[in-house]
Design a protein that fits this description.
elongated
Length: 435
Amino acid sequence: MVILKYFLRLLFVNFVTKFRYYKMKNKVNFRIIVKVIFIILLFVCNTQTTTAQWWKDTEKAEKERSKGMLLLTNEVQIEASQAINHMYNFKFYEAEKEFTYLKVKYPDHPLPEFLLGLMEWWKIVPNTENALYDEKCLGYMDKSIDKAMKIWDDTENPEAAFFMAAAYAFKGRLHSERKHWSKATFAAKSALKYLDKSRSFSDFSPELMFGDGLYNYYFYYVKENYPLLRPVLWLFPKGDKPKGISQLEKVSYNAFYTRTEARYFLLQIYGIENMNEKALNLAKYTHESYPDNPFFERFHARSAFVQGHVSEAKSLANSILKKIDEHYAGYEGVSGRYAAYILAYYAYNYDKDMKVAKGYYQKTIDFAKNTGTTNSGYYWSSMLALGKIASQEQDYDKAIEYFKQVIDDTDRKAAQRDEAKKLLAEAKKARRKKG
């Protein structure tokens, strides 16, 4: 098609050039003009016939390649790609327009509803305590399941099974966040059921591996961290933690629809498993791909902070706070708590600027209170640091108040609790000596 357009342009330019030349010479030769126009029309008619046949052949080849699966057609991947990128970059208005277009174009297919449900989930991601989007997320997933079920009942198309597995998995994911364990268990069993049914189609293998990877890793994670749920695990086949991580890494490079979801989970897994270098590299790459995604940016900041990349962590923390002030979508108190603590830590421990440190530690506390996350390490450490600064300023009453608060709020096994007890005794002794 590009060659055709180029050739027609050459013919047209040639025609115009000749026409202007003869006009300047007052020798307009209409026989030449008619001849040129005739050649162009003849070429266009012939090309249209050839193009129509080429298009039919291409459509036939595409149907054979995709085996009638919408997910595998190049056209849908191109149409969905930009919208998915908008979604992960928190440009939800632009993403929703594209997803709605897909819904109109493919009204009976589960893909558009699934993507709309996934978008609602990503509105939850920055602060998973926020239940504002739960109903819409679950509603879209239910609609996707209904449409997929109809296709499955009619044709047993493995693509339909894939969507049921994915939609049930996201429902289970949200129910587990809300500690609705019975609903989460039912959704998880349904997801595994349809995941097995979709295995008959090998072309889905990179996408299917995402579900396998998550299952293999989190089977052992749940077993190790949620003792009350261990009896429920008897209902499920055993997982394999190292294999799960390896599978998710393969998905993060090879899959089309699930690669960013795999990276989202890998970032958290690397953090849990203390794979800090891997976490930083992946966080940096993913944040650069989606610069306005608050989860990826704060994880990049956290990873740089953990790895001791001071200037990088500072820059990212300042960027997060700036975006909160400018009301960027998804930038709120949880990301603010991370960013404020990083800047407070550097001001206190590196710059020795107590005034700046106090301001950022207080911001960390305020963000934690606003988001209901006063059980976090950053909150306790900020309270402890403000107590230390108060002691250095010989304001022992305030210092004692901070240390008591840490002791009251922290878990019994928390390191901050033991440190607060020691500092409380020292502050009381210093107050007696001063008074």
